Structure formats: structure tokens, C-alpha cells
């Protein structure tokens, strides 16, 4: 009888820990849209690796979230809506870019504050953007550049 009670208590402790981790993972450190936040917009040439829900970081600290991505049919750019912490006051000449956590890491959006005295108001657009850089395209350019250099070098020496 005592063994059954110990097994039930151990099972209950494991279940409580699992529920705690589930709650933390679902709501942990995410910034709630609307609660102490405001939105800004930005247009990117490429948002590869970014989706709604991706982190927005400043100096490596999460300060917001991508809330929406949509293709602008007039400019053929991807328009992003970001929600940032209302305590954050970004200058109007701030930049926004898509960065990567490394070769195998995911992408996130990085804010780079400018130096202007004017502050971006809610709903305004961040003009200075840099889209995602495709590692495959960079590799193909590097390989293509190596062949072009060897062709011109080979032709010059013959």
C-alpha cells in the first residue's frame, strides 16, 4: 500500500512539473500584443526565415514581436508589422534588419537605434530596412566569382 502511494505521489510531481514547463513555454517571455506595446511598420525586399511571432531584438534583448507579414502588390516588398514595448522610444532614423543567430540558427529582426531627436510615433514606418541575406546566394556568388577570376587569370597567362 505504501509503494502505491509513493508511486502516485511521484507521478503527480512529474505531471505538475510537465504542466509547469508547458505553461512556461506557451507564455514565458513573450510580449503580449496590446499590453504595453505599440506597432510600427517596415518594408523588406526579403523576409526569408521570418514569420509572424518572430522575435524583435535590440542589443540582443527581445523588445517585441512580428505581428503580421504580407506582400505589398504595388511595391512587391514584404510589409511587416511589429509590436514593440511601449517603454522603447526609437528615433526616426532607426534601422531594422533581419539577422541570423548563426549558420544553423534561426532568423530574428534586429532594431538599430538612430541618433535623431524625433521619436517614431505608433503606426509609423521605419524607412531604413535590410532584408534577409540568403547564404545559398552568397555561396553561389563566391563560387561563381572564383571561376570568373580563374578564367581571366588563365587567359592572361597564356
Automatic annotation (TrEMBL):
Signal peptide as annotated in the record: none
InterPro entries according to UniProt: ABC_MlaD (IPR030970), Mce/MlaD (IPR003399), MlaD_Phospholipid_Transporter (IPR052336)
Organism from which the protein derives: Tabrizicola oligotrophica
Protein name: Outer membrane lipid asymmetry maintenance protein MlaD
A GO biological-process term: phospholipid transport
Origin: domain of life: Bacteria
The Mce/MlaD domain, residue ranges: 37-114
